[in-house]
Amino acid sequence: MKFCKFCGVKLEDNAVFCSRCGKQLEEEVVINSVGINQTNATCEKSSKSKIAAGLLQIFLGGLGIGRFYTGHTDIAVAQLVVSIVTCGIAGSIWGLIDGIVILTTKDFKDADGKIME
Ligand SMILES: [Zn+2]
After folding, report:
1. What b/e string do you get for 14-42 counting C-beta neighbours within 10 Å, with b at 16 or more?
2. 42 C-alpha vs ligand 1 centroid, how far in Å?
3. Distance (Å) from CA 10 to ligand 1 centroid
4. Is the pTM here over 0.85, yes or no?
C-alpha cells in the first residue's frame, strides 16, 4: 500500500496514476502517512460540475438551486427568501449574476472547499 503525494488517497503498490486526482506517481511520491499531512490539501477536487452549478443558478437561481447543488445552502436559502419577498424579481436577478460569477470564477469551490471543474 502507498499513498498519493498530491491528495493522500491510498493506492495499490503498482499504481502508476492516482485513481482520485489522476496525477502521475513517481518513485519519490511513495510516502508514509506522516508525509500526507504536509501535502494533503493540494488537489482536492469536487465531484460536482461548475458548469451545471452555474447554469442551474442562471436559470433557477431565484430558487437557489445552483447554490443548493454546490452545498452553499445559506446562500440558497437567502436567494429563496429574497425571491419570495420580491415576487421572484430580485432573486432571479441575483441568481443570474451568481450563476455568471460561478462560471467565470477560476477554481470556484463548493461548500466543502473542493475545486469544481
Ligand atoms: Zn491523488
Report:
1. eeeebebbeeebeeebbeeeeebeebbee
2. 9
3. 9
4. no
Domain ranges of the chain: 2-42, 50-104
Q: Which residues contact 56 (CB under 8 A, 6 or more apart)?
A: 65, 66, 69, 99
Helix (H, G, I), strand (E, B) or coil at 9: coil
Interior angle at CA 113, CA 10 and CA 55, nearest 5: 115
CA of 11 to the centre of ligand 1 (A): 9
Distance, CA of 38 to CA of 13 (rounded, Å): 21
pLDDT tens-digit readout, 17-51: 898 898 887 654 445 555 444 444 555 799 999 99
